[in-house]
Amino acid sequence: MKKHPWPGNIRELKNLVSRAAALYPRIHITENHVEKLLDKTLLEKSEERVSNDMPVIKEIEKQMIIKRLQANKGNQRRTAQDLGMPKSTLHDRLKYYDIDITSFKV
Question: C-alpha distances in angstroms, 71 versus 17, 38, 51?
């Protein structure tokens, strides 16, 4: 982290911490996690992958929901809790993103 130029100063650092907490909840954040979040080529590839139909922030939200559903084996209550949103909001987002909840249940 000391080698990163931090062009956004403290805002960029706060953003990194927020993203790390959201993407790796209940996990000890390691240097590898931080490197992945700081990797510009990874960010560029994800931006290229996003279609013009969906803004980047929506695609990120969708991927975070999917990741937490996988980790929680489809448990919507725990997923909503992990994401810091009411269960009803998660339910609305599942419909919006057309995410099939049955594919996550074991």
Answer: 20, 23, 25
